[in-house]
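Lecture 7 notes: from sequence to structure.
We start with the chain below.
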Amino acid sequence: MAESKAQNISSQLWAIANDLRGTMDASSFKDYILPFLFYKYLSIHQEEYLVNNDLVDISDGKSVNEAYKELVEDAGLEACLIDIAGTLGYAINPEDTWASLTESIHNGSVIPSDYQRLFENFNKNAEINKEAAADFRGIFNYINLGDSGLGSTTAGRTKTLNAVVTKIDEIEYKDESGKDILGEIYEYLIGKFAANAGKKGGEFYTPHEVSQILAKIVTGNIQSQTDTFTVYDPTMGSGSLLLTVRNELPDGSRQGAVSFYGQELNTVTYNLARMNLMMHGVSYANMNLKRADTLDADWPFDTHNGIEVPKKFDAVVANPPYSQNWDIKNIDREKDVRFKGFGVAPASKADYAFVLHGLHHLDEKGTMAIVLPHGVLFRGASEGKIRENILKENLLDAVIGLPANLFYGTSIAVNILVLSKHKTEPKTQFIDASGEDFFKKETNNNVLLPEHIDRIVEIFGNKEEVQYVATLVDNAQIAENDYNLSVSSYVEAEDKREIIDINKLNTEVVATVKRIDTLRADIDEIIKELEG
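Predicted structure tokens for the same chain:
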């Protein structure tokens, strides 16, 4: 498969990052290269806004940045910032634009405080548009300009930052057709950083192939779009899964066609998600992202007649942290409406807490797909009770077993649980997609190719029964099996051992013994002749 231009540029930036990062590990260096790539995007986006709305005049050959400075001189800085932020949700001062920054670096006039000023001004301007403030507030705050990993002195750290900006400035941000590909470059870089960070990286990144399966499943019944499609990821990581859902919708690329909701506890990863969505053209008006612990308090809500009610979604997707500890001792989870009627997940394994949270926010006509470890299928005690209640409510649509070695930093095999509230038949589909026919081996990892993904989604969508691969099981049968959901309990594994014909083998053994006896007789005759 030919490498795209975005992939090629991403590979180049990755190589440059390895040269520049010095003693800093790659997972930390992403905290610099990704934000600056985003800052370039914001600055270019602002330039395009100024030109497309005839706010600046570049007919005389001036650069957009020069024309912007003249506009500020004529109209005043405050008026310009209010105008820009009113539409874009943010605004960048003339002295802080990407063009101004790179020009200063080229002239050798950048001082250490310039970077601090640049981000402080951005934060100040992010408060101008109150509707967008939450989406831009503090988005660069986690950048540690004093990190000794960048250099042992202030001058050394500034030199490294200048080098990062210069290298990012050199990359082309449009493909051959003129399409902006900075978002794609950003996405590929996130994947490379996640792969390099191993298990830690897997915390904020779901392999794209797995994301595609989830996205195709939750959008499978959408043939055309008129209304806004709502999607929620309660453990959104870097936001890639949300974007993958958009890509599977027939009209997903249209601004306003999708409303994105997501939560993420880790501050750095939350900021990555905000950047990722915006770099893929998502307007602040269409994204509602929150930095919070999904399990501690319910969110999001709608307001009807002055009363808060749980917001419901067309699709819920998630790849939560597996078997995570959570507090059930100091907080009375029994009273939490999300878990009422199902049960409370054990303190050492919050997997089903994420499932029930997602179900709580799933629309009656919606679909939920969540990635979880094998243990959720058969572990007993409170988890067994939750499984029982989910099956009794006929909410489980399918269990899909995936191959091992798909995720960064872990070799475990995982499963996709598909849930819905609009099932008619009390049956559950089990799909064993862990066999060799469903992946390609590449070095230490297994990879799902497009044909593997399509086959899994096709089997699910058609509710196919395929020998050794998929079957539909009555929920009553699952109940008789103590609500065990292990795929192997219902899908018979193909016996690929060689079949041995015992009769044929016996005939061959008898013939061999006869040949040996004949040879012995011949040898005895030869020995007698030699002795004689």
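Points to note: Residues 426 and 476 are 8 Å apart (CA to CA). DSSP finds 17 helices and 13 strands in the chain.
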